[in-house]
């Protein structure tokens, strides 16, 4: 059953069938050009194994994927003359994730390039309680303080 879900995944099929426009292929992560690019050189970086989102990926695989995204960003600066990059990702149904395989869009940017990848507004969602306190509690406030705090 799990193999069927993986083969129904667009990114897993690209990896398995070796049909993407590869920028890099490594043991734990891959990078390829999507058919619809936001900018010249826009690259998707994905874990080589199927992980639906940031909630389900083991920390080591996430670290390898992010490390490849960092190397791709550096290559954009040197090879494409990009003066910056946007690294974008969405995880889970409330995030507008389009393919249920964790992926990072690494988008090269140049001053005055005419695109904006930053959200244009703010969420209408409201919480009961202080978001900082709720997050700190969820992360375990009883841990050792850092940086002298």
TrEMBL record:
Organism: Streptomyces nitrosporeus
Pfam families with a match to the protein in the record: HIT
GO MF entry, a single one: catalytic activity
Spans traversing the lipid bilayer: none
Annotated PANTHER family: ADENOSINE 5'-MONOPHOSPHORAMIDASE HNT1, HIT FAMILY PROTEIN 1
Positions annotated as active site in the UniProt record: 103 (tele-amp-histidine intermediate)
Short sequence motif named Histidine triad motif, residue ranges: 101-105
The protein's name: HIT domain-containing protein
Listed GO biological process terms: nucleotide metabolic process
Superkingdom in the source lineage: Bacteria
Domain named HIT: residues: 10-116
InterPro entries to which the protein is assigned, alphabetical: Histidine_triad_CS, Histidine_triad_HIT, HIT-like, HIT-like_sf
